[in-house]
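User: Hi! I'm working on a homework problem where we have to compare a predicted structure to a textbook description. Could you give me the structure for the chain below?
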Amino acid sequence: MKDDLQKAKEFCYLLLKARDRSEKEILQRLSAKKFSTETIEHAIQDLKTSGLVNDRQFARNWIQTRLSKSYGLKRINFELREKGISDGLASEELSQLLTAYPQEDVVLSLIKERARRYRKLDVSKRKQRLFAYLIARGFSSNIINQEIKKFFKSDDECTLTKFAKVS
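Assistant: Happy to help. Predicted C-alpha cells:
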C-alpha cells in the first residue's frame, strides 16, 4: 500500500511538473495507470493538503492563460467543465477575471488579423469564415455579428474613400 501510494504521488509530481492539473485530471491519469481506488484517494488527499492540487487556483490559472490566447468565454467554460471544474466555480472565477477582458476589442482584432487571409474571397464567404473561426474560439454569436458588421462597415468606408481619391 505505502509503496503504491509513493509511486502514485511520484507520478502526480511528474504530471504537475508540466502544468497545473485539476483533481479530476489527476484522478483520471492515476486510474489509467491502474492504481487502486484507495491509493488514488490517498494520493489526491495528500496533494490537496500540501496545496499542489487546488481546483480554484487551477481554474483561475486556466482562465488567465486562455484569455491571454484570445479564447472566448464559452470555450473556456467548456474546457473547465471537461477538466472537472464545477459550473459554479467556473462561473465565479470567470466573472472575477472578466472585468478586465474587453471581448469586443479582442473579437475585432481577431477579425482584422484573420480577414487578411480571406481577402480574395467574396464578402459573404469572408463573413462566414470569420464567423465560424470566432465561434470555434468560443465567442458569442451576438458579439461576433456586431463586430463583423462594424469591421465590414469600416472596411467598406475605407474602400469607398480609396476609390473616391483615385477618380
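For your comparison, note the following. The domain at 2-49 is CATH 1.10.10 (Arc Repressor Mutant, subunit A). The CA atoms of residues 49 and 136 lie 37 Å apart. Good luck with the assignment!
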